[in-house]
Amino acid sequence: MPVPYRYTAPDPEGEAQAPFDRLFDLFRQLLEHTAGDAAEALRWLTELDRKYGLTDSAYGLGDFLEDLRQRGFLEEEPDGTARITPRTERVLRQRSLEEVFGKLRKGPQGGHRTGFEGTGGEPRPETRPWRFGDDLQRLDLTGSLSNAFLRTGIDRFDLEDEDLQVFEADHHASMATVLMLDLSHSMVLYGEDRITPARRTAMALAELILTRYPKDSLDIVAFGTDAWEVSVKDLPYLQVGPFFTNTRAGLERARDILRRRRNRNRQILMITDGKPSCHYEYGRLYRNPYGLDRKIVNRVLDEAVVCRREGITITTFMIAHDPTLQEFVRQLTEANRGRAYYATLDELGSYVFRDYERNRTRRVR
């Protein structure tokens, strides 16, 4: 007997949800380009609405603003200036994760696979004799029963400890990560916005670690003429300044952070588009923004060697295509025995994802 169809009247609230979602997605993208400045993003949204008719008489920008407030995405300062809320910051990270790591498959939390065998992690087809303390969820039932049958025969079946077999498992280790983000002026020079995709990638990586690898630690270092620590919640608001590029200071700050971490596995992920152009010596800033200065480069390479000696891997994501700069990255990678990726702006996020999923103890030149 065919199942009858049931027809109902349209839900007015359901119809109102669609325009909010469309405007919110656009508002979110504008927030990425305005470094979290809600007032500026709303001005841009108003201008886009004026030019392209994004709203109509049924749902206008005023309705959208009211919904933002009611849903906890927007609040006002005492002077009436609009600002985003922690909930919006979290949504920005989550959406960045979806966009940058859209093909991410759900897996076990809190572990990076290593080349060692252990009691936790993903099961392997190989088995070994059971030892006291082994997880019985990894018991190889078929193999254990076979051992018992071979020992006693089917007539007087008796299962002993020595018959038990368990599946091997990959050991999973925690990782201490420092993400270095270049905020030097070159990130917005030459008519190309490089800071927006770099910031989006940083937010996605932070959300990835916080949700999929809760046992890992993540610290963030911004660097320009100097280097300083920033929190995860500040990521949407990071802006390029009138800075030189003090790569050495960034590495020093990152190394100091990792020294305080108890993790045996430690790494630095550095997103940059420019050459090192300054460093401090004897309290004075030495700078040269014109070409690669050997004096500055050598200080950076010295720091890379120190990181290598302390067991810290540097992975550099270079988003510039100048052969001279690529040669500098090659030297940096060789000195540290780390990793380097020469990524376009569109590929940057996927490269960060693939590297973070790999074995942390492996060295790739």
Amino-to-carboxy terminus distance: 66 Å
Count of β-strands: 12
Largest sheet: 6 strands, mixed
Quick check: average pLDDT?
81
The number of distinct helices, counting runs of at least 4 residues, comes to: 10
Instruction: Compute the number of structural domains.
Output: 3
Based on CA atoms alone, the radius of gyration comes out at 27 Å
Instruction: Point out poorly predicted stretches.
Output: 1-17, 103-110, 114-120, 359-365
Q: What fraction of residues sit in β-strands?
A: 15-25%
Per CATH, the class of the largest domain reads Alpha Beta
Descriptive overview:
It is built from ten helices and twelve strands. Helix 4 packs across helix 6 (195-212), helix 6 (195-212) packs parallel to helix 10 and helix 7 packs parallel to helix 8. The strands form four sheets. Strands 7-6-5-8-11-12 form a six-stranded mixed beta sheet, with helices on both faces. Strand 9 and strand 10 form a beta hairpin. It is 40% helix and 21% strand. The chain folds into three domains: 12-84; 112-171, no CATH class; 174-357, von Willebrand factor, type A domain (Rossmann fold, 3-Layer(aba) Sandwich), CATH 3.40.50.410. The protein has 365 residues and is of the alpha/beta class. The chain is flat, with a radius of gyration of 27 Å. The termini are far apart. It has helices at 12-33, 38-52, 61-70, 86-100, 141-152, 195-212, 247-260, 294-309, 323-336, 348-357, and strands at 74-76, 82-84, 112-129, 165-173, 176-182, 217-223, 227-230, 266-272, 278-281, 284-287, 312-318, 339-342.
